[in-house]
Design goal:
Length: 316
């Protein structure tokens, strides 16, 4: 065998050994979504009722308040100055045109559940959006209909750790899209399925073995008490866009839970964008069984009675 042939074979082997598919060195579609969300959740994204009331009292011009309440809820009472909009995640263009890029958008609703989902979506698109903690319920519970209030189903609580079912990580190729286009597309794909993002405790119990329940509690709170059979993936893993989120079973429904349903709505939207069938438990552990808490949750102890407003507000 000639020297040149030997060199050729050696080079060929080296190329085959170290070469990888061209997309492997690039950011995959899932990695891109995780990065976008990681950046979106870097800074605080919540206003308390007290901090928003103070800002409204001083006529803070940097705020733009929107309400996701339906017409009946909005008519019953909304945050002063809030403009009601319909944010259709499948076709959000009309709503997005109303939102200023140079202001902080405060997203409100009846109890803070859907506003968290919308806040993540808007922040992924580059808006400075923040949700109102507990919505109108946290602002003045007198004006919230019964269905929007937390219930206590008294369902089973566990203390033993449940491991995540074994599965393999699914790697996708690069999206080939810029960040905004990718978020709009993956959110639209999910929204067109017409699945509710929020489900009741009763609906979760009916899923039985067809779902994986994920608790976003801290490890300490999880050890004290959690939904029986729930797997612990702390909220920080969602906020930081952990690769763990690519290791969930694709053949099961995913139910995300937290303390009051806020972070679980954020987590559920993110998982749906990643291609899972994910849901958020309504009011989280608060709605499931409040005996799982070592001590009462501070947000639910505040008894605010800030003034609400009725009537319409229009975007000029």
């Amino acid at each position: 065998m000639s020297f040149n042939i030997k060199i050729f074979i050696f080079i060929t082997i080296m190329i085959m050994t170290f070469a990888v598919p061209s997309f492997a060195a690039e950011e995959t579609l899932q990695e891109q979504i995780l990065r976008i969300s990681r950046n979106a959740l870097k800074v605080p994204h919540t206003f308390t009722a007290a901090s928003l009331h103070e800002a409204i009292s001083t006529n803070d011009p940097s705020l733009y308040i929107i309400s996701l309440q339906n017409e009946k809820e909005y008519a019953e009472g909304h945050i002063p100055g809030a403009i009601r909009i319909d944010l259709d995640l499948a076709n959000p263009a009309a709503a997005l045109k109303l939102l200023p890029r140079n202001k902080t958008i405060i997203v409100t609703d009846s109890n803070g559940q859907l506003s968290c989902q919308a806040t993540l979506f808007l922040r992924q698109l580059g808006y400075d959006a923040r949700n109102l903690l507990l919505g109108v319920f946290g602002w003045n519970p007198e004006y919230v209909v019964a269905s929007a209030r937390p219930q206590n189903a008294g369902l089973p609580i566990g203390k033993n750790e449940t491991p995540l079912p074994p599965t393999r990580t699914f790697y996708s190729q690069p999206s080939g899209m810029d960040d905004n286009k990718l978020i709009l597309q993956k959110t639209k794909e999910y929204a067109l399925q017409k699945r509710p993002v929020i489900i009741s405790p009763q609906a979760v119990t009916e899923m039985k073995g067809n779902a994986v329940i994920i608790s976003l509690q801290t490890p300490e709170d999880y050890a004290y008490g959690h939904i029986a059979g729930a797997v612990n993936i702390p909220a920080q893993d969602f906020i930081k866009g952990s690769p763990k989120l690519l290791q969930l079973p694709k053949d099961k429904k995913i139910v995300v839970t937290c303390y009051i349903g806020h972070y679980s709505n954020i987590g559920a939207l993110l998982l749906n964008q990643l291609g899972y069938e994910a849901y958020s438990l309504d009011w989280g552990l608060t709605g499931w069984n409040q005996s799982a808490f070592a001590k009462p949750l501070p947000p639910l102890q505040a008894k605010n009675s800030f003034p609400v407003e009725r009537g319409e507000h229009y975007n000029n």
